[in-house]
């Protein structure tokens, strides 16, 4: 992104009274300089100096804002916009600061992200919760994502994994696996993209294997439960 756009969108240049109306185009600067070296007028270089002054001013202000975002002080979060917090969360994840990344992403959602960013933020928050071992919290977030057109299938898969491995509820796990399978088949039927269709086919096989395993586990559990119920019944009589 051009620095002038960063100044306008991130620093709110109009509020600061910064104007670049008469700024020289960056594309012209080399030509002005080489013309001067060949004996051309010096006046255009004054505009180049002003341009560089404004660039340095903008870079310094951006540095100050980024430094504030990276500050360890939690009280600065209330002054940061939700999109900046979400971007900060992703940066902190790459830097390995998982706790601060989780906090920034949660705050971004709480403040109110634009609609197009909320599913992605929820997905990343759920993944961070899972990595922290907070599987129940991750499942709660995935439940919010299930209806999303882009991430709904992945959310169903994660919920199927949660209910099978952690909640030990194979029937509930089957529900989400079946929901994901139905969505995949519908997606493949309406898609004209051969690559997407191939990917859907691979995922279908993956969910079919999961469903077969879950059905087997349910049968085993039912088989163990029947003798136990009979023994209790005969003991009671």
How would you characterize the overall build of this protein?
This protein is mainly α and 237 residues long. 75% of the residues lie in helices and 0% in strands. The chain is built from eleven helices and no strands. It has helices spanning 3-9, 13-16, 29-37, 43-69, 82-95, 98-111, 118-131, 135-145, 152-165, 170-190, 194-236. Helix 5 (82-95) packs antiparallel against helix 6 (98-111), helix 6 packs antiparallel against helix 7 (118-131) and helix 7 (118-131) runs antiparallel to helix 8. It starts with a helix and ends with a helix.
Briefly characterize the structure:
This protein is mainly α and 237 residues long. The protein is built from 11 helices and no strands.
What structural class results from the helix and strand content?
mainly alpha
- Given the C-alpha coordinates, what overall shape results? elongated
Largest sheet: none
For the record, give the distance between the C-alpha atoms at the N and C termini, rounded to a whole number: 80 Å
């Amino acid at each position: 992104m051009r620095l002038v756009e960063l100044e306008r969108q991130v620093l709110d240049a109009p509020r600061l009274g910064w104007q670049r109306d008469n700024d020289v185009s960056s594309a012209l600067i080399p030509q002005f300089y080489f013309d001067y070296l060949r004996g051309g007028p010096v006046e255009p270089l004054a505009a180049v100096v002003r341009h560089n002054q404004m660039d340095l001013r903008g870079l310094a202000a951006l540095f100050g804002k980024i430094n504030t975002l990276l500050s360890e002080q939690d009280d600065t979060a209330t002054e940061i916009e939700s999109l900046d917090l979400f971007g900060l969360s992703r940066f902190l994840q790459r830097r390995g600061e998982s706790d601060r990344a989780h906090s920034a992403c949660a705050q971004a959602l709480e403040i109110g992200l634009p609609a197009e960013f909320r599913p992605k933020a929820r997905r990343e928050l759920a993944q961070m919760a899972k990595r922290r071992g907070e599987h129940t919290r991750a499942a709660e977030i995935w439940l919010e994502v299930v209806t999303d057109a882009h991430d709904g299938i992945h959310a169903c898969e994660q919920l199927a994994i949660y209910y099978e491995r952690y909640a030990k509820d194979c029937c509930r796990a089957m529900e989400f696996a079946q929901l994901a399978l139905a969505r995949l088949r519908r997606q493949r039927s309406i898609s004209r993209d051969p690559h997407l269709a191939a990917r859907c086919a691979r995922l279908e096989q993956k969910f079919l294997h999961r469903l077969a395993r879950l059905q087997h586990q349910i049968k085993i559990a039912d088989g163990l439960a029947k003798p136990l119920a009979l023994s209790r019944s005969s003991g009671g009589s």
